[in-house]
Amino acid sequence: MSTALRDLPGLEASPAALERLAALEGLVRRWTARINLVAPSTLPDLWTRHIVDSAQLWPLAPPGAGLWADLGAGGGFPGLVVAALAAERGAPRVALVEADARKCAFLREAVRQLSLPAVVHHARAETLPPLGADVVSARALAPLPALLPLVARHLATDGVALLPKGRAWQEEEGAAREAGWRFAAEALPSATDASARILRLREIARG
Question: Fewest beta carbons within 10 Å, which of 116, 128, 137, 162?
């Protein structure tokens, strides 16, 4: 279980962090029996499909980040995974933004049980007051043209967005630029899907 995490470039996960992630896996499995936290078809490979896939974002964040906002936090990926890795360091704090009340109940219970440095915002990202986060993430929330207004709302001026995207990432990036968005972009390979990319965006602006 831990070998795959150790294969991620730049990731150092302590034994305590691995215990928290294993406990998170158990929580997700139990709660998914009651509410749809993740697609049932992904449960047999939950560790790789969700936990490792989320953990690969951790080394891509800028050093010294104080606040990480995860939009559409859902089942806690990547937000709870980031918080589990950050717990011993005291930073970053993680803001978990989720509109679904049932998923917020799960997120709060996970934060409580695992003693994570995170707070849950039961709100839509477009109505929540701007968070000014150093890092903003969003996993499977919306296509890039619809996602960037939410990211830009909550990202600090010098912040970084980390956005996992599937095989259509190039089309999404092109559509966002055609819609008038400007940004500096890096398309980084995904450790869990050869056709996917993690878009690391800076200097996001429109017009």
Answer: 128
Rounded to whole angstroms, the Cα distance separating 24 from 138 reads 19
Residues across the chain: 207
Quick one: which of 120, 121, 125 has its CA closest to 142?
125
Q: What is the DSSP letter of 199?
A: E
For tokens 């589990």, name the residue: 84
Helices (H), the chain: 2-6, 15-32, 46, 53-55, 79-86, 101-114, 144-154, 169-178
- DSSP code for 40: G
Confidence at 10, pLDDT banded by 50, 70, 90: confident
Angle between helices 79-86 and 101-114 in degrees, nearest 10:
10
Residue 48 makes CB contacts below 8 A (sequence gap 6+) with 4, 192
**DSSP codes of every residue in 178-196:** HTTEEEEEEEEEPSS-TT-
Residues 6+ apart with CB under 8 A from 12: none
Residue type, position 126, single letter: E
Residue given tokens 């003693």 in the structure block: 115
pLDDT in tens, 11-64: 888 889 999 999 999 999 999 989 989 988 888 999 999 999 999 999 999 999
DSSP state of 48: I
Classify residue 4 as exposed, middle or buried by CB count within 10 Å of its CB (0-12, 13-18, 19+): middle
The two structure tokens encoding residue 148: 């960037």
CATH class of this structure's domain 14-154: alpha beta
